[in-house]
Specification:
The complex is a heterodimer of chains A (835) and B (136). Chain A is α+β, with helices and mostly antiparallel strands and 835 residues long. In chain A, 50% of the residues lie in helices and 18% in strands. The longest helix of chain A has 34 residues. Chain B has a domain of 93 residues: Beta Barrel (OB fold (Dihydrolipoamide Acetyltransferase, E2P)). Chain B has a 5-stranded mixed barrel. Chain B is built from 3 helices and 7 strands. The chains are: A alpha+beta (835), B alpha+beta (136). Strand 3 of chain A pairs antiparallel with strand 1 of chain B, so a sheet runs across the interface.
Chain lengths: 835, 136
């Protein structure tokens, strides 16, 4: 790209070019090998003649293994480049620096698009190798699935190959040299590497441990959706639907991992983003949630198909669409199309055409194939039985599917804008736009999940005992809900009584989900772990919903600015025209400030003090905040320290990014972050203004007046040192009627030195100094008055309370466990059938 | 017709109603001029900072009051009031996306999205990430 100088003419000093050359070779080989693997698996899939099939299979396996080795090698080389700080490579320069702790070097790896494509590819290799080694019984289906995986691998490999074919750029290589990519004059110098002292670093928001673990899990989730998709495609091609059995454990595995990955992202958002929550219906979040919803729908229809032979079309469609939505989300987040609407999309690498191609090359053939085969997908013609398990499972799946469609339609508005030249913008309250719909989805799904297991396939069988079995869980639910709603009533009524009621109902139904499934597992299944997967998964899902409804509908802002000094008075209860509350509390260093006023008693529940701040090696600035929780009678109930921090933004961005800090109780979190701070260790250019004053005089300053009450002279009794001290006793009266004391003084050590010791009134930004004596006889003194905003360090703080958020996190763990149990049980079943 | 088909049709109908009602909630991008024509209507402005107007923000007095001037690409100017803390790199950003409504003379803003050029494009000519070492 660089034509500023002729690179060949310059001998660059100190470059380590070998890793890059190896990287290029590995990427090219992986492109070729994945193509060979695709072709050979296709041959093995279509050939019925055993010896031919075996030889194609052998070739395919070898090609797949070569490809995997190449991908692993690329992975290793890129990590070598990053961890050895080889800044001649653009990827290392743009995504890392020397100060980063080791674990964040991994985050650097997937900060960029190229690295995350490699990560995705890496998981495909791992999954493909497992399929090659485990699927002795389902050979034919596996060839089909592996063919699709290999083709996906081919597409992904082209994303990182970085070749120019004529003027069309194919992929973007992570092994490109900085000097070939950038037109900076400095890069034409032979010794430019000496001048490149350090990389531009990892985006400060990504410097969080969740960002080390969340992307690999999420991409494993994405990659694993390819497996059931591959099985489904092979089923459509061969008109054989037995693939559902081997695909199911992969599907439950995928849903478990994808769900875990999504919620790890939510945990990251909760801990390191400052929108004050774990979910914001951001396009990037939606794009990963939607495939999960359709995948869960697919798992349920696949089970219906296995048990009853119905829902086959839905199963194909849902497995297909889950994978296609993963690619669509890739397109959304990487093409830069979300630019205006998302906070955390990737940077645009100028590969939009290729990304669109990647999307269409799967979407178009899949739907053509699906519609061609549609008529041949035979299902039993009998009508549905209304009291059967499969009927309600299908209803639930359809609800999930349509909810996913609604979410993705809304998320795709930037795409319509692009396609049709529209300029539609998100609504005023984009989160509520989703919440008001999805709360009803949650209610329906919650009830269906609770009741579903008590019904039997094909209906009827347990008619007599159904209500008997159902009654106890219902009673427990009513009791639990009453207690919970009494303890933490849903007070959120910003959106009207209807939504508040819906939230209450949703909370009750999600409690019902938990109780009914727990009861089913413990009583009906007698607590056996073997078949507990779905019950435990559903319990987890119910807990997630409970956690969501309690914590977000009772999220409370504790930092209402009711006490700030000279705050422009606004009634927080009054409907602000922009609905934007005054949620920021100002704290001066060292001054305890009241927080969280109880409207009924007028008392404050907390006292917060900004004790000090420290800066660590990585230039992270920690604020030490002391919280005192006061009970009734102003007694100290609890006291704790929190350390929210801010980190200077890198990558040429100004400003700071704030990291919240939370105090975790078992039943709630106190969530704190610094919204702005003023650091005044630097310059203070304001001068002391001298004023003549006598005892009894007053002088005005901007926010009140000062009054000199008395002057005290102290002679030191210590004759040796002989210090004399003259002290002014000043009262500072602020406009608000608060009186502060200030005692500036002069110390005279012997005859030689005079020291002036000013006194400060921090809350008034006032420094008073005993400047000297104007007239000794008339006792007129000079007081220096300095008013300066840069007097004290101050921060503005937001504090939220999230009740029972732990239920959400526990729910995620339980749900993942449930998916894991299902996966193991099904995988084991398949294996035992084999023998 | 099977019962599931009925359920499906009902659900699709609901989904369509939801989406249509959603489009009613959508807001629009406006210029300063057209925004002034629609006082009280929630809308989006794409603007840049008007450097001739001083930014008023004093966290000591009120951390939740920010007032500044903006200008759109047609030259229309308006004052903006934001009841929140000042976004850290606001003055340096090239483009602002403001959401809110015109109330009287000012734009009462409920959210500010900053666009910094270096963040969104790996432009080979971008100087943002260039090393600061002075050469020669």
């Amino acid at each position: 790209m660089n034509t500023a100088t002729n690179p060949a003419a310059v001998q660059f000093i100190g470059e380590n070019l070998l890793p890059g050359q190896l990287g290029y070779i590995f990427t090219i080989v992986s492109v070729v090998a994945s193509l060979v693997a695709t072709f050979s698996f296709a041959k093995a899939f279509y050939t019925n003649e055993i010896t031919q099939q075996n030889s194609w299979q052998r070739l395919a396996n070898i090609a797949f293994i070569i490809e995997s080795v190449c991908v692993f090698a690329c992975f290793g080389v890129l990590f070598y480049v990053i961890s050895n700080h080889l800044f001649e490579y653009k990827y290392a320069y743009m995504h890392s620096d020397k100060n980063l702790p080791f674990e964040y070097l991994l985050s650097c790896f997937w900060e960029g698009q190229e690295g995350s494509f490699l990560l995705w590819s890496f998981w495909h290799c791992v999954l493909g190798l497992i399929i090659i080694n485990t699927s002795k019984k389902w050979k034919q289906e596996s060839y089909g699935a592996l063919m699709v995986i290999s083709f996906t691998q081919f597409c992904l490999a082209t994303m990182v190959v970085g070749l120019y074919i004529f003027d069309f750029k194919i992929g973007s290589s992570p092994f490109n040299l900085l000097r070939n990519e950038m037109n900076w004059p400095i890069l034409s110098r032979p010794d430019y590497l000496v001048l490149l002292k350090d990389g531009t670093g990892l985006n400060t928001l990504l410097q969080n441990y969740w960002m080390v673990i969340h992307p690999p899990i999420l991409f494993l989730g994405f990659a694993s959706t390819t497996v059931p998709f591959g099985f489904a495609v092979s089923g459509l091609l061969k008109k054989e639907h037995k693939w559902v059995t081997p695909a199911l454990p992969w599907a439950t595995f995928s849903a478990g991992i994808l769900g875990l990955g999504i919620m790890m992202g939510a945990a990251w958002a909760y801990e390191s983003l400052t929108f004050g929550g774990y979910w914001a219906w951001d396009p990037v979040e939606n794009a990963s949630l939607v495939p999960w919803l359709t995948l869960v729908a697919a798992i349920h229809t696949a089970m219906i198909y296995k048990k009853t032979g119905t829902s086959l079309k839905a199963t194909y469609l849902f497995f297909g669409i889950s994978f296609l939505l993963v690619i669509y989300s890739t397109f959304l987040t990487r093409s830069g199309i979300l630019g205006d609407t998302s906070v955390h999309a990737f940077t645009d690498l100028g590969m939009n055409a290729q990304l669109l191609g990647f999307l269409l090359i799967f979407v178009v053939p899949f739907f053509i194939l699906f519609f061609i085969r549609y008529r041949s997908l035979k299902e039993p013609a009998k009508d549905d039985v209304i009291d059967s398990r499969e009927f309600w499972m299908l209803v639930g799946s359809l609800v999930l599917f349509l909810s996913a469609l609604v979410i993705i339609s809304i998320t795709s508005i930037p795409v319509y804008n692009k396609l049709f030249g529209q300029k539609e913008a998100p609504p005023e309250d984009p989160m509520f736009a989703h919440n008001q719909v999805q709360v009803f989805v949650a209610i329906i799904i919650g009830v269906l999940t609770a009741v579903g297991q008590y019904l039997s396939y094909k209906g009827g069988a347990i008619k007599g005992s159904f209500w008997k079995k159902m009654s106890l869980p219902l009673i427990i639910t009513v009791l639990l809900s009453s207690i919970l709603l009494w303890l933490v009533p849903i007070t959120f009524n910003d959106k009207g009584i209807g939504f508040q009621a819906a939230l209450c109902v949703a909370l009750v139904t999600s409690i019902y989900t938990v109780v009914a499934n727990a009861y089913y597992w413990l009583v009906v299944l007698k607590g056996k772990l073997k078949s507990a997967g779905s019950s435990i998964g559903h319990i987890g899902f119910g807990l997630v919903l409970v956690g969501i409804f309690i914590s977000s509908s009772n999220k409370k802002v504790l930092s209402w600015n009711t006490t700030g000094i000279n705050v422009i008075q606004k009634n927080p209860n009054e409907k602000n025209p922009v609905g934007n509350p005054m949620e920021n509390l100002t704290l001066f260093e060292g001054i305890a400030t009241d927080m969280d006023r109880d409207p009924s008693s007028g008392k404050y529940n907390y006292k917060v003090t900004y004790i000090r701040d420290t800066v660590d090696k990585l230039e992270k600035k920690y604020f030490e905040l002391k919280f005192i929780k006061k009970g009734i009678d102003n007694k100290v109930q609890d006291s704790f320290y929190l350390y929210p921090d801010v980190l200077k933004n890198n990558k040429g961005m100004e400003g700071f990014s704030a990291n919240p800090s939370s105090k975790h109780y078992w039943h709630k979190d106190i969530f704190v972050y610094v919204t702005s701070f003023q650091d005044h260790s630097k310059e203070d250019t304001v001068q002391f203004k001298p004023n003549e004053i006598k005892v009894g005089d007053s002088i005005f300053y901007s926010n009140g007046y000062i009054k000199l009450n008395n002057v005290i002279k102290k002679s030191s009794t210590d004759a040796q040192v002989g210090v004399d001290e003259v002290q002014m006793q000043i009262e500072v009266h602020s406009k608000e009627g608060i009186v502060y004391q200030a005692n500036p003084k002069v110390k005279i050590d012997g005859q030689s030195s005079i020291r002036m010791i000013p006194d400060t009134v921090r809350a008034q930004n006032l420094i008073l100094n005993f400047n000297g004596v104007a007239d000794n006889e008339k006792n007129i003194l000079i007081v220096g008055i300095k008013e300066s905003t840069s007097l004290t360090n101050l921060i503005t703080l937001k504090v939220f309370e999230f009740p029972f958020i732990n239920i959400l996190w526990i729910g995620v763990i339980v749900m993942t466990l449930g998916f894991g149990l299902s996966t193991f049980a099904r995988a084991k079943q398949i294996r035992s059938k084999k023998e | 017709m099977k019962k599931t088909h009925i359920v499906l049709l009902v659900l699709i109908a609901v989904a369509i109603v939801v989406l249509i009602s959603y489009t009613g909630d959508l807001s629009s991008y406006e210029t300063v001029g057209s925004a002034k024509q629609k006082p009280g209507k929630f809308l989006n402005l794409i603007v840049k900072m008007d450097t001739s107007v001083k930014v008023q923000y004093d966290p000591v007095k009120d951390p939740n009051y920010l007032k500044f001037g903006v200008q759109d690409s047609l030259g229309g100017k308006i004052s903006v009031v934001f009841h929140n803390t000042m976004p850290t790199d606001m003055e340096k950003s090239e483009r602002l996306v403001l959401k809110g409504r015109v109330q009287g003379d000012v734009f009462e803003c409920s959210s500010i999205v900053l666009k910094c050029p270096s963040k969104y494009k790996d432009n080979p000519n971008a100087t943002a990430n260039q090393p600061v070492t002075i050469t020669e």
